[in-house]
Design the sequence.
């Protein structure tokens, strides 16, 4: 994925701003939006640019600081996956294999990434594809600034040869020979190509299309708690991996204890003998230092590891570690047991973490009351391990076990005002109302939206001739006595 | 199954021994009585077996889709237990205030929302292996024999009770599957009935027809019952009630589950 260089100039945004290399012949290395609009591009000599745009603001390029900034950005991107590599000079690679479900899928992950980068003032283009090479090419040369390529890499064939990372000289040479797109190059016989340009074009093509693996060298955050095992013999069975996990977790928990920390996110990197890597990431709802708990979470995910011809190095990192909660520290002080030794299986936290790692942490939750009379707003989701909430919803009126979202309109036959209807038709079935309770008037919450100022609902619990019980309401827009009204069904009591 | 006369002592002894084998050598079966002698009398042990899988479906075209009455029936059972509960679901139409109104403390319920249908039974099974829980509810459309068998084994080992709420997309899907055999020890069907009459206009206490369709080691039955009150107890309609019906459904062998749940610090 590519990202533009961060700009930290105090210049007004509308004045064109460029960064240019230092030295005898200065060349533009980055441009801002205003400069881009005026036709300035990366690679244009500065003298030429000055001729085009006289009032140009120029800053000296500082490649070392840029590289450092990129590295910092890579460390930040570890929030998305354990495998993040810098792709100099201006890009990042994030291997999201097996990590995207924690954010609800690939597209939400990408949107979140772009949004957070934008909030930091970084404009970025991003792409998700099956190979690092294809993602790199799409992020830089794709039509859309954000794209997800699910299957097939045909779209890559249409990209210019410059997307292959062959260096400017070779790219220019290839274009002179008439190779415009990656597809053109792919269609040409390899041997003459290799004869003239060496093996690089062939290798890049293979990497883009996934025929050979392209190892990426992930950044490792400093000052993190880490355990490492180099194995004498490569391992590949699930049992062996399990044994390594147990040993690593034991090491890690010892270190966590020294720092007084508990792990929130664990990354386990498996280095395979073929030079590629596999990663497992697990998260916990609260800081944890219990070895059995952490072991279990990691072992759960062994299925997702493809050991290939074997694994020779395993590195376990506590990517996110926080001080233990007061409760756990209290347990340590009070007694006998380290949090690592108590019966973790019987704690709810263990279950919440196992479920959370399987389906996503936001899908494991509790429901808590919110002070709102509007039924659909009166419930909120809170973390499963949040402290207990003062119990209950205050209303004495019965509430339905199943709430329809959104409420569905019904056709009614209402004979008297301020009474429930005599009959209603919902989903094509007409029901005669035998009994009813109500109305319970609920007013709009004008402090949320102006439109609710004059809105109100009159709720009725009704029972039809078969005994089915429904929650209906009459919606007022405007004055309760004069405005238009409509009937809805909002729930089923059972 | 038919109501039987008193079996001979030898037969009873044999049954007990088979039962001991079935429950893996544990001495006693813990049960949660409904507090209605007519119902409890049909159930082996005198109540709903804990550490076992129970199936609850709802009758009627609306019931098979929304299962609103069955939901409250299940919630009422949970309300009469103590300790944390895992509620595995997929649709997000469950309305927590209603569970609270039948006595199920929202602090006790952890929800797990499955991203797809096939993950749902796995979540239920995971919960059932976890001794820290009291019960697991799963809102499932399909309950294949193998999956239910796995759940039953997990429940027997951990002592966690499972309630499988059957919910289908359509009445057609329901009728195709409702009769399929499962490893659940009981199968219930709950349907809404007109509420108890009141002297004034209005809706009285909710009433259900509760059918015990299948019960391993017990006898099927069918009752018209008043739905859960604010503590999750069922009741017999006044004109049918005898003295025992007012007994409260409390846990027999009360040491059973003393695990309390405390979230946070």
Sequence:
């Amino acid at each position: 994925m590519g990202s533009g260089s961060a700009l930290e100039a105090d210049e007004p945004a509308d004045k064109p701003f460029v960064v240019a290399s230092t030295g005898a012949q200065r060349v533009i290395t980055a441009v801002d939006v205003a400069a881009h609009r005026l036709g300035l591009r990366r690679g244009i000599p500065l003298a030429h640019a000055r001729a085009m745009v006289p009032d140009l603001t120029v800053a000296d390029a500082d490649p070392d600081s840029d590289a450092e900034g990129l590295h910092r950005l890579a460390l930040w991107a570890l929030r998305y996956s354990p495998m993040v590599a810098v792709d100099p000079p201006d890009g990042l690679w994030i291997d999201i294999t097996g990590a995207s479900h924690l954010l609800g899928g690939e597209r939400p992950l990408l949107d979140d990434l772009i949004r957070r980068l934008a909030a930091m003032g970084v404009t970025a283009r991003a792409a998700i594809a099956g190979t690092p090479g294809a993602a790199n090419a799409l992020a830089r040369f794709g039509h859309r600034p954000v794209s997800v390529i699910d299957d097939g890499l045909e779209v890559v064939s249409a990209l210019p040869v410059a997307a292959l990372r062959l260096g400017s000289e070779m790219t220019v040479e290839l274009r002179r020979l008439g190779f415009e797109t990656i597809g053109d190059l792919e269609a040409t016989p390899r041997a003459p190509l290799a004869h003239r340009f060496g093996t690089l074009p062939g290798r890049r093509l293979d990497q883009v299309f996934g025929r050979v693996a392209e190892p990426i060298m992930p950044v490792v955050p400093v000052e993190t708690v880490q355990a490492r095992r180099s194995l004498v013999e490569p391992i590949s069975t699930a049992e062996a991996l399990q044994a390594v996990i147990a040993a690593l977790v034991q090491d890690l928990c010892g270190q966590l204890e020294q720092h007084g920390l508990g792990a929130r996110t664990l990354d386990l990197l498996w280095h395979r003998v073929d030079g590629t890597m596999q990663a497992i990431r697990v998260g916990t709802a609260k800081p944890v230092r219990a070895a059995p708990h952490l072991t279990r979470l990691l072992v759960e995910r062994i299925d997702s590891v493809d050991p290939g011809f074997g694994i020779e190095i395993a590195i376990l990192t506590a990517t996110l570690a926080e001080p233990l909660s007061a409760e756990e520290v209290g347990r340590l002080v009070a007694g006998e047991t380290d949090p690592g030794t108590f019966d973790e299986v019987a704690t709810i936290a263990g279950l919440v973490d196992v479920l959370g790692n399987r389906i996503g942490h936001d899908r494991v939750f509790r429901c808590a009351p919110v002070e709102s009379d509007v039924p659909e707003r009166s419930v909120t989701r809170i973390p499963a391990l949040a402290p207990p909430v003062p119990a209950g919803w205050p209303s004495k009126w019965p509430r339905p076990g199943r709430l329809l979202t959104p409420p569905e309109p019904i056709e009614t036959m209402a004979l008297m005002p301020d009474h429930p209807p005599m009959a209603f038709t919902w989903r094509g079935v007409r029901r005669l109302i035998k009994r009813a309770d109500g109305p319970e008037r609920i007013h709009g919450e004008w402090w949320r939206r102006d439109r609710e100022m004059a809105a109100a609902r009159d709720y009725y619990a009704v029972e039809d001739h078969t005994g089915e019980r429904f929650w209906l309401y009459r919606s007022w827009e405007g004055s309760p006595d004069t405005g238009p009204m409509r009937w809805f069904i909002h729930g089923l009591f059972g | 199954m038919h109501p039987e006369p008193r079996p001979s002592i030898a037969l009873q002894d044999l049954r007990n021994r088979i039962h001991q084998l079935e429950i893996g050598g544990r001495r006693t079966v813990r049960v949660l009585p409904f507090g209605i002698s007519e119902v409890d009398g049909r159930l082996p042990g005198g109540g709903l077996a804990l550490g076992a899988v129970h199936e609850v479906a709802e009758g009627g075209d609306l019931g098979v889709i929304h299962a609103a009455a069955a939901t409250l029936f299940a919630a009422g059972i949970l309300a009469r237990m103590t300790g944390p509960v895992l509620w595995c679901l997929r649709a997000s139409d469950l309305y927590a205030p209603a569970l609270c109104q039948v006595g199920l403390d929202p602090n006790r319920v952890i929800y797990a929302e499955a991203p797809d249908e096939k993950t749902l039974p796995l979540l239920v099974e995971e919960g059932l292996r976890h001794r820290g829980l009291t019960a697991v509810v799963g809102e499932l459309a399909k309950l294949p024999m193998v999956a239910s068998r796995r759940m039953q084994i997990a429940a027997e080992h951990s002592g966690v009770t499972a309630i499988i709420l059957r919910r289908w997309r359509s009445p057609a899907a329901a009728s195709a599957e409702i009769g399929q055999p499962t490893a659940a020890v009981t199968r219930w069907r709950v349907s809404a009935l007109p509420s108890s009459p009141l002297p004034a206009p209005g809706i009285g206490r909710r009433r259900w027809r509760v059918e015990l369709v299948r019960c391993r080691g017990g006898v099927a039955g069918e009752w018209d019952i008043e739905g859960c009150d604010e503590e999750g107890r069922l009741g017999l309609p006044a004109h049918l009630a005898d003295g025992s019906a007012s007994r409260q459904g409390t846990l027999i062998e009360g040491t059973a589950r003393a695990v309390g749940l405390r979230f946070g610090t």
